[in-house]
From TrEMBL:
Keywords: NADP, Oxidoreductase. Pfam families: Aldedh (PF00171). The keyword Oxidoreductase applies. This is NADP-dependent succinic semialdehyde dehydrogenase. Belongs to the aldehyde dehydrogenase family. The keyword Cytoplasm does not apply. Residues 3-462 form the Aldehyde dehydrogenase domain. CDD domains: ALDH_SSADH1_GabD1. InterPro entries: Ald_DH/histidinol_DH, Ald_DH_C, Ald_DH_CS_CYS, Ald_DH_N, Aldehyde_DH_dom, ALDH_GabD1-like, GABD/Sad-like. GO terms for molecular function: aldehyde dehydrogenase [NAD(P)+] activity; succinate-semialdehyde dehydrogenase (NAD+) activity.
Length: 470
């Protein structure tokens, strides 16, 4: 795939960028290694000051950055602005909390005495340059949620961003440079996917984090494993959205629409499979379909647009094939199911797809076991709680989940039995810097955000002091 900005709303190529050659990559790896040797010993106050400056600069650049994201991957402008705000907020959060999250841990005094030591502490030391391989769907947030904790931990970052968001990738490098970071602390590598393995194998790269597809995760994990390097993966998701009889069904249906079509439906943690108890199925189906049908599809730069184009032509075509496969195998299309007609002039060549609801899903259909990365929802009927859980877990993925019930007993069962990295009751899954984020099964491993995330790329070092040190 060429490194280029292609407007998904029109299909027009706006800019192309040559990939770095071997010498260019080597120069950036050298800078990263040199920068780490200086930056790793910097005090938390200094790191926090730099990160706050970057956050404030990002806020000042809000309109420019939001417009760049819209033209590179098609998300609605209002959502792009919200992404900028979330990034700035999270940068301030890590600047405020990193010192506490990474404070030395003191073991129990009895265990220290039993070891024969005068004192023991565990210190979280930085690892080194971290390669971040990031996707296009949240081109700012995916990077910041890796970069902010890594930089506060004393690591430095090398960014290999998706090939269709090069302007966002270059802006991020500029952002951290303007905040006062040394040139090697955050660098964007404009390289092709085929060059990633070589970078991972370089001895100067200490670890790698990837957010992306299952296939990309397998490729990166294979190379990282061969090199015995730490790897964190946040991959695909096909999150369930369960609605049980005690739920506020009207509110659940309203949130379900937003949960499915956020970011034009291109979110790993978007709800995708809607599993509804038969007692409230008809009520939910009616409200959900009406809400999906009412969404406005169009120019993502229009503040009244709810759903913009898919980010790539390949992604739109793949989604279309999944829907046609389901239709051909007996699924009912309750709304959508086609490319929209009658869009404004100039948008006819864009990669749009109507918000779609499918029901009567059969396990033989692709939509049952594949992730639908676009505004397509699958609707299931469940006879009881046990069947709802069984349907929810019948997926190779386990990123997050949503469950609508006001019954404490049902909440306890779901908290115990849903196979996912998160269970959100009576609300929509959303990441927050204070809570760990990640999945299980084919959704990856490791965690981002919170204390678990910031410690992923540190060296937890046991410091043992003998009796003569007392």
């Amino acid at each position: 795939m060429a490194i280029a900005t292609v407007d998904p709303a029109t299909g027009r190529t706006l800019a192309t960028f040559p990939p770095l050659d071997a010498q260019g990559v080597e120069e950036r790896l050298r800078r990263a290694a040199e920068a780490f040797e200086q930056y790793r010993t910097s005090p938390f106050d200094h790191r926090a000051q730099l990160l706050r400056r970057a956050a404030d600069r990002l806020t000042a650049d809000r309109e420019k950055v939001a417009a760049t994201m819209v033209t590179e991957m098609g998300k609605p402008l209002v959502q792009a602005r919200a992404e900028v705000d979330k990034c700035a907020k999270s940068m301030h959060w890590f600047a405020d909390h990193a010192a506490g999250l990474l404070a030395d841990q003191i073991p129990d005094a009895a265990d220290v005495a039993d070891s024969g030591a005068a004192g023991v502490r565990v210190r979280f030391r930085p690892l080194g340059p971290v390669l971040a391989v990031m996707p296009w769907n949240f081109p700012l947030w995916q990077v910041i949620r890796a970069a902010a904790p890594a930089l506060m931990a004393g690591d430095v970052l090398l960014l290999k961003h998706a090939s269709n968001v090069p302007r966002t990738a270059l802006y991020l490098q500029e952002l951290f440079a303007h905040a006062g970071y040394e040139a090697g602390c955050f660098q964007t590598l404009l390289i092709a996917s085929g060059q990633v393995a070589e970078v991972i194998r370089d001895d100067r790269v200490a670890a790698v984090t990837l957010t992306g597809s299952e296939g990309a995760g397998q490729s990166v994990a294979t190379v990282a494993g061969e090199q015995l390097k730490k790897c964190v993966l946040e991959l695909g998701g096909s999150d369930p959205f369960l609605v049980l009889p005690s739920a506020d069904v009207a509110k659940a249906a309203q949130v379900a629409v937003r949960a499915r079509v956020q970011n034009n439906g291109q979110s790993c943690i978007a709800a995708k499979r809607f599993i509804v108890h038969e007692a409230v199925f008809a009520e939910f189906e009616r409200a959900f379909v009406e809400g999906m049908r009412a969404l406005r599809v169009g120019n993502p730069m229009d503040e009244h647009t709810d759903v913009g184009p898919l980010a790539t032509e390949q992604g739109r075509d793949e989604l279309e094939e999944q829907v046609e496969d389901a239709r051909g195998k007996g699924a009912r299309v309750l709304c959508g199911g086609r490319r929209p007609e009658g869009l404004a002039e100039g948008l006819g060549e864009g990669w749009f797809y109507e918000p779609t609801v499918l029901t009567d899903i059969d396990p033989a259909m692709r939509v049952h076991h594949e992730e639908c990365f676009g505004p397509v929802a699958t609707l299931y009927r469940a006879a009881d709680l046990a069947e709802a859980v069984a349907i929810a877990n019948d997926t190779p993925y386990g990123l997050s989940s949503n469950a609508w019930t006001r019954d404490p007993g049902e909440q306890g069962v779901l908290a115990r039995d849903l196979q996912a990295g998160g269970v959100y009751f009576n609300g929509m899954t959303a990441s927050h810097p204070a809570f760990p984020f990640g999945g299980i099964k084919r959704s990856g491993y490791g965690r981002e955000l919170d204390g678990l995330g910031i410690r992923e790329f540190t060296n937890p070092t046991t410091l043992w002091y003998g009796p003569e040190d007392s």
